[in-house]
Each structure stands twice: as structure tokens, then as C-alpha cells.
Amino acid sequence: MLENEASIPNRYVVFDLETTGFSPEYAEIIEIGAVRVENGIIISRFQTYVKPFKRIPSNITALTGITEADVKNAPRIDEAIVKFLEFIGNDILVAHNSAFDMRFVCTVCILLGLDIRNKVIDSVKLAKTYIKGTKNYKLETLKEHLGIRLDSHNASDDCTVTYKVVEECRRIMLGSTSKI
Fold it and tell me: What integer pLDDT is reported at residue 153 of this predicted model?
């Protein structure tokens, strides 16, 4: 269920996945990251690697930096998704290009008979509404535009970048002059 894309709640959870491909029919989740935000401040974090059933393709390791050694002792998706669902509770979820991440989460939940009904906000739509002057709204581009210096394509840092994008949108929406 999608929340009004132009509103920014005071409490939300930003989450991000790293996967072995683009489709949950053929690819697997190999990392889940999340940050809980309350009144504009990160108050807790969640991160886990996920041990896939198949080997991580070399192009994915090159992109994400996630290796077989990273996931060797990680939980399988059935355990990892339960921990993730416990972390998010009933909070509103925020993800950059949320349809991609939610497709994976919902597919896993359906396969495991788990329920997820959280409202979801797509930070791409927020950025398009509030942030002007970028060539596109990819997370990497927004990160550069906002001067954020963090790595890309790892779930934890991507959550932090998305959080900063959302809070920049809030700042613009409220007409504040102080930067993130």
C-alpha cells in the first residue's frame, strides 16, 4: 500500500536490499539494511547478509562488494526476513525505487506465508517532487547532488543516503534554509 508520496511521516523505516539480479523469480536477496527514523534522526539500524542458495555472480560481487565469505555464515532468507519484519514492525517503509525492493520482500513473504502490510513511500517520487536541478533521480546522482560522501551498492550506506534524501525533501517542503 502506497502512502501519499508528497508527505513525509515523522517516523519511518528506510530499507534497502542487495540482490543477485533484477527479478525475484531468478535472483536472491543477499543483504538487507534498514534504519528507523524518528523526528528526522536515525534511532536504530538493522543489517544482515543473507546466505543465498546459489553462488553470487561475479558481476554482483564487483558491484556490491559482497563476497561468498561475507554470506558464508549468514542466515538463510527465511530467518533473515523474519528478523527484518520484526525490526520494521508496522512502521511506514521508505525505499529508493520501492517497487524493486518490495517485489523481492513480497515474493519472499508470500513463499514463506508471512504477512507484510506496511505503507510504502518511494523516495524517488519524493525527490522528483522536491529536489530540482539533477540530471536524473538515481540514488548515486542524488548523493552527488547533495554532497553525501558514502559508498554505494551496500544496503547500510544506501539506507543512510536515502534517509538524507528524504530529510532534504522534508527541509525543502518546510522551507527551511538549514542543510542536511
Answer: 84
Q: Which residues contact 71 (CB under 8 A, 6 or more apart)?
A: 30, 49, 50, 51, 52, 56
| All three cell numbers of 69 | 565469505
* 153 is known as an active-site residue: yes
Active-site residue (options: 131, 153, 172, 173): 153
Whether 170 contacts 14, CB under 8 Å: no
Indicate yes or no: pTM above 0.90.
Answer: yes
Band of residue 180 on the pLDDT scale cut at 50, 70, 90: low
Distances (CA, A) of 160 to 8, 21, 27: 16, 22, 24
Max Cα-Cα span within the chain: 49
